[in-house]
Amino acid sequence: MSTKGLSLFAKRRLRVRTALRARGGTRPRLSIHRSGRHIYAQVIDDAQGKTLAAASTLEKDVRGTTGATIDAATSVGTRIAEAAKAAGVTQVVFDRGGFLFHGRVKALATAAREAGLEF
């Protein structure tokens, strides 16, 4: 695939995902996306092309109390780990999706690790 015409962010996202596929093996992927207002996390089985678990700040039970903060990312990390364990997943590879491992991304990853996901 040619990266000509892609933004630096899009190039970094492709580079990260390619490296994960090379190293990840058969583990599901914990993919995150953050916007200015929300943060989203999914555990994806790439072999089957299915989402096994998902969590975000858009869920009804937390929608009014959270936003684009580190506290919100921490709660999403905890909830994604619980949902993944309920789906029978304990080991994942972390796909930061081109975002730098800092701030909300790091808070989500740390909370998921503390809640029992291994990566």
UniProtKB/TrEMBL annotation:
Recorded GO CC terms: ribosome
CDD domains associated with the record: Ribosomal_L18_L5e (cd00432)
Swiss-Prot/TrEMBL keywords: Ribonucleoprotein, Ribosomal protein, RNA-binding, rRNA-binding
A Pfam family per the record: Ribosomal_L18p
SUPFAM superfamilies attached to this UniProt entry: Translational machinery components
Highest taxon listed in the record's lineage: Bacteria
Functional summary from the UniProt entry: This is one of the proteins that bind and probably mediate the attachment of the 5S RNA into the large ribosomal subunit, where it forms part of the central protuberance.
Similarity section: Belongs to the universal ribosomal protein uL18 family.
Quaternary structure (record): Part of the 50S ribosomal subunit; part of the 5S rRNA/L5/L18/L25 subcomplex. Contacts the 5S and 23S rRNAs.
Protein name (record): Large ribosomal subunit protein uL18
Originating organism: Sphingomonas hylomeconis
Gene from which this protein is expressed: rplR
